[in-house]
Design a protein that fits this description.
Length: 266
């Protein structure tokens, strides 16, 4: 991403509504004078990549499966896994893979404005969203290592990720069972498990991560000061996303995952 696309992105978001502008001003006051850079190259490229603000150099996209956008090693491993499943008559399809900061922000801000209209306070809106939607910049989908996997699409795309489809008798039961027994062989691990006591996001039977690439991404992500990026990039509610809040969020949500994907334990 060059300077112009970064700035255009931020400005067009800000122009979407006065609410965003006022929350940005409040955020800057709350977090302290965050200096949003005129030139994003002053921020480390590695950080921009992990936050979805810059595409990884080795991001690959499949011409037959356009939704399949992953970093090279994860991409190859997914295709191997898919081919193996197919040999066993299980049809597997990639849903959401690599996702930009901008896409996550659009989802976040849209839902945030719905809560605003319902007269929720920003804090109530944040509490309501937690567990369902990652704060822009913190989604594992920004890393190009994670993929939402479904079976043959028989419903509109927007409605494929429902837990009931992946249980016994569900339309994606065959995929869920195959992944449970075979995904690890190909280096993929389910992220949001049903393990009792796990914190963070609700269980997602469809979300798998390529550990070899995701482990170093998470290790590095934990060191990033995310709050300044949220303020500068027009994220709704960012006045409440203070460094302290984000530290707690990282512990609860980013580390509330399958232990196989936590760097310190691997
Ligand atoms: Zn996902």
């Amino acid at each position: 991403m060059n300077r112009r696309t970064f700035l255009t992105d931020v400005v067009s978001t800000a122009a979407a509504g006065a609410v965003i502008l006022s929350s940005k001003a409040q955020a800057m006051e709350a977090i302290g004078q965050v200096l949003c850079p005129q030139d994003e190259s002053s921020w480390p490229r590695e950080e921009l990549e992990l936050l979805g603000l810059e595409k990884p150099n080795d991001l690959r996209q499949d011409e037959h499966l356009p939704s399949l956008r992953l970093r090279a090693r994860a991409y190859e491993a997914f295709l191997d896994m898919r081919a193996d499943a197919k040999r066993q008559h299980v049809e597997m399809y990639p849903g959401s893979c690599y996702r930009t900061f901008g896409t996550q922000r659009t989802m976040w801000n849209k839902r945030f404005s719905v809560y605003h209209q319902k007269k929720f306070s920003p804090q109530q809106a944040l509490d309501a969203r937690m567990g369902y939607l990652a704060i822009p910049g913190t989604s594992r989908h920004h890393w190009g290592t994670d993929v939402d996997i479904t079976g043959e699409i028989r419903t509109p795309e927007a409605h494929t990720l429902r837990a009931r489809y992946f249980v016994t008798g569900g339309i994606f039961e065959d995929v869920a069972v195959w992944l449970r027994y075979n995904a690890n062989t190909f280096g993929f691990y389910r992220v949001y498990t049903e393990k009792p006591g796990r914190t963070g996001f609700r269980s997602e039977p469809w979300h798998y991560s390529f550990a070899e690439s995701a482990l170093p991404s998470l290790r590095r992500f934990m060191e990033i000061e995310v709050s300044k990026y949220l303020v500068c990039a027009g994220v709704e509610g960012s006045e409440h996303l203070t460094p302290e809040f984000l530290d707690r969020y990282k512990q609860t949500f980013m580390l509330g995952i399958n232990p196989k994907l936590i760097p310190a334990q691997n």
